[in-house]
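Example 3.2
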Amino acid sequence: MNANPAAPRTLLRLAVCLGGIVLLGCVMSPPLYWTGTWLAEAGVLPVVKGFPFHRYFSRSMQISALLMLWPAFRWVGIRRMGELGIRPNELWKKDVAAGFLMALVPLAVLSAGYLWTGVHEMRSAWEGSGFVRIAGTAVAVSTIEEVLFRGVLLGLCLRAMGPWRAAVVSSAVFAAVHFLRGSKAPLDGPVTWMSGFGQVPLLFSGAPEWPLIGWGAVSLFAAGMLLAYAAVRTRSLFLAAGLHAGWIFGQQGLQLISKYQGKAPEFLLPWVGPNVVSGAVPTGLVPLAVLGGTAFIVWMYARRARDSR
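Structure, written as tokens:
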């Protein structure tokens, strides 16, 4: 990994690329919404039926970031992923499966504890097909976010600073970006070509209030540090992607079959609070302790994997 400081010109170009991502995402979000709505009404893609515009806006930003990756890399002088510290991984299937299980099993134990103690209560009715949608979300989101945050952002940080500082910076950005949500309020009128631009000033309007935003930020930062460690130790994104997918599947699965019973957001804090950011980020000291246990398992796995490779 190159530890040379990034040139000011490179940083300026990255800032321009970020502006391009936002612009493209704003332009893409209306046609993505129209297409998704049409497919849902036609019965081709019923899982997206009723999705509000802000969800399409969020996905448009992620798709835009992926589309801009290659031209942005070329512009700043990066020709291959190896320059960001990513190496071929012949054991990628093992890493994905191990990461998924190392994230899901502790989370399943935590979920069982929630149900047993009454923190969560089983819903009277829920559809098993919801797990198919959650699985698709877990695969898509974990892939996109690991490429962006651990592949690109962490890789660029590693070119400018040491591993620990790079992990801290990338994890802080990872936590902050998750609170960038378009307004959940219904649009005043129909979706137009300008609707995406109208979401930009409202990016933080969907963030939870204090203290939930603080607890959510701590959970996201801790998860980001663990994912960064997995990526750096294995020089690959597959272990981190498996972890990420396991967390999303477990948390959203819990939200599907049960409901948090706190009367107010701070009801059980600092021990346990409601999930934030689309029901996928737990809050409180108990989930953080479980995350610490996952971190220990990942540390053991990554140490042995690196020695064997």
